[in-house]
Design a protein that fits this description.
- By secondary structure, the chain is α/β, with parallel strands linked by helices.
- It is about 30% helix and about 30% strand.
- The protein has one domain: Vaccinia Virus protein VP39 (Rossmann fold, 3-Layer(aba) Sandwich).
- Helix 5 runs parallel beside helix 6.
- The termini are far apart.
């Protein structure tokens, strides 16, 4: 039986944190689960889709990353724990979400993690930050994927902010595979397009600006190395990795 740990209202709705004993759970609506944090080991990702997003580590050793959408901060915690020297900028619209991530989900308070409260759309328009190796976009609200994440100009601006060999990682839903404008925007700006369809119907896209030609055996070796650092196996997600046909 979960108990209520935190609840706050803002102009976008309710932010709630539940405690089920082992985990804290972040929710934006009734029967909704946005983030889950294992209290004893907050850096170990609990969802298949967030684990699949870190397949990008097989293609890129990131020094600087941008997270669009913080949630409980699980990706930030996992990256900070596993990737030596990484610098993380996280952009989150909602102040109560940031408070919950820091108070309950044990988001590290560190110089190499910068949290900015801002609309991700406006951030991409106005920012003057240095280019990054990886952008993780996981923009959701109580109804599903945020519309901005599927727009052509959003994809373009992400591509512009990436380094020459950078990667964009997007968490979407299975039905968005049938969005031709979105898929065409990805094809226009990225040379290497792959995806994982998880059991929960999340459609995780990995888009590289330069094509990667590693063999499957080499990817498996790299996955084994990262699995030890991340404390979960990347192999089952690698087995589901497919090319997005162009």
């Amino acid at each position: 039986m979960s108990k209520l740990s935190y609840q706050a209202q803002d102009e976008y709705g309710t932010v709630t944190v539940y405690d089920d004993g082992e985990c804290y759970i972040l929710s934006f609506a009734t029967h909704d689960e946005q983030s889950r944090c294992l209290k004893a080991a907050p850096h170990i990702l609990q969802y298949d889709y967030t684990q699949a997003m870190l397949l990008v580590l097989l293609f890129c050793y990131p020094k600087r990353v941008l997270l669009l959408g913080l949630g409980g901060g699980s990706l930030a915690s996992a990256l900070y724990h596993a990737v030596a020297g990484i610098h993380i900028t996280a952009v989150e619209l909602r102040a109560p979400v940031i408070e919950a991530a820091q108070r309950y989900f044990q988001l590290p308070r560190a110089k190499r993690i910068e949290v900015i409260q801002q609309n991700a759309d406006m951030f991409l328009l106005d920012n003057n930050m240095r280019k990054v190796d990886v952008i993780f976009a996981d923009l959701y609200d109580a109804t599903g994927t945020a519309a901005m994440q599927l727009r052509v100009d959003f994809i373009r601006r992400c591509a512009e902010l990436l380094k020459e060999q950078g990667w964009l990682v997007l968490n979407c839903w299975q039905e968005q595979q049938d969005n031709p404008c979105f898929c065409n925007a990805l094809r226009e700006h990225f040379a290497d397009l792959r995806y994982v369809l998880t059991g929960s119907k999340n459609w995780v896209i990995l888009a590289g600006k330069v094509a990667d030609d590693q063999t499957n055996n080499l990817l498996k070796e790299t996955a084994a190395s990262w699995s030890g650092k991340l404390e979960f196996s990347l192999h089952k997600h690698l087995a589901r990795l497919r090319y997005l046909e162009v």
